Amino acid sequence: MCVNITLAVDETTVERAREIARQQGTSLNSLIREYIELLANQVTGNELLKEFEQMWTEVDGAGSGARRPYKFDREDIYEERLARYKGKRG
Question: If DSSP states are collapsed to H, E and C, what string results for 16-69?
């Protein structure tokens, strides 16, 4: 369902925006609609936090559903970095 909205914008600004839209092969209405959709679909800070928390934890292998923090192995990280470094030089 679409909703019509009314905006109050300076006439000069509208004319400049219409010209830009024309150069891009679209309409001012389409540009504004796309921008509003882009804004509405942005991830909020809280949503990002939840995503990172989910990535940071993993389900316990015993099937209990308990969560534990992911642990980094220092040696593995070092080896991975060393391999990348060697790959760039070789």
Answer: HHHHHHHHCCCCHHHHHHHHHHHHHCCCCHHHHHHHHHHHHEEECCCCCCCEEE
